[in-house]
Amino acid sequence: MPIVSFQSKLCVVCFLVGSTALGVAGQQAAATGEPLSIRTVDLPKANLRQQCRYRLEAQGGINPLKWRVSGGSLPPGVDLSEEGTISGTPTQAGTFRFTVTVSDSGKPPYERKQDLLLQVVTPLLADWSSYPTIRGQQVVGKIKVSNQTENDFDLTLIILAINEVGRATAVGYQHLTMKQGADNLQIPFAENLPPGAYDLNVDVVAEVPSTGAIYRARLVTTKKLQVREGP
Which domain holds residue 166? Predict the structure, then answer.
């Protein structure tokens, strides 16, 4: 009968215990995976009353990951799904600050947080820079236009003076390229008019050639502009 020393048996036990410990450690390391982190730190602008969709990005952790808003608030009409998609149609312009939290499927789960900002803008803004007035037989004024998107506009502006019987007289026309982010572009106008009482209508149309999106803005005077007979 072979003789096995107690020391040999002890070495075998130590080897088995060591192997088991290494296996458990390896399984735990595999379950832990790469440390969880959030890669999304900025969001593009969203346009008022237009569909938006942004995918939040994270890496590491144990899948599946779950997202939630844990502070602040998204714009009205916009939500964050558990899968990490911000989507919806914003119904209010402004700057919205919020915090998102992503959790992995570890036991216990690991979490990461990130502060984000979503700016909802009105793509095309138009307003009076100088309200229309009558100087002698001439109507004069100035309009300011802003492009709050991240795209260039193919911009068309038409100004009409409409008298009391509905007759329209062209006062101004502009067709130009408006660069992304252009703020308060000044467009003056001046035109002689026959005697009468006039409403002034301004129509601004902006098209984004790359996407085919079209935005419109309209201005109308609040009181009649009186052009009187000359001396």
Answer: 124-227
DSSP-based helix, strand, coil % in the chain, nearest 5: 10, 50, 35
Q: What is the pTM of this model?
A: 0.70
- CA distances from residue 112 to 16, 53, 55, 68, 87 in whole angstroms, order as listed: 38, 22, 16, 11, 21
Reply yes or no on whether the pLDDT at 98 is more than 50. yes
CA distances from 217 to 128, 141, 148, 149 (A): 12, 17, 13, 14
Residue pLDDT, tens place only, 128-164: 999 999 999 999 999 999 999 989 999 999 999 999 9
Q: How does DSSP classify residue 213?
A: -
Please, how many CA atoms are within 13 Å of residue 157, restricted to the half-sphere of its CB? 24
Q: What is the pLDDT of residues 54-80, one digit of tens each?
A: 999 999 999 999 999 999 999 999 999
Per the omega criterion (within 30 degrees of 0), is the bond before 108 cis?
Answer: yes
Ranges of H-type helices in the chain: 6-32
CA dist., res. 184 & res. 186, Å (int): 6
Whether residues 145 and 99 fall in one domain: no
Structure token pair of residue 166: 């509905």
Biggest CA-to-CA distance, the chain: 138
Q: How many domains does the chain have?
A: 2
DSSP-assigned beta bridge partners for residue 102: 67, 112
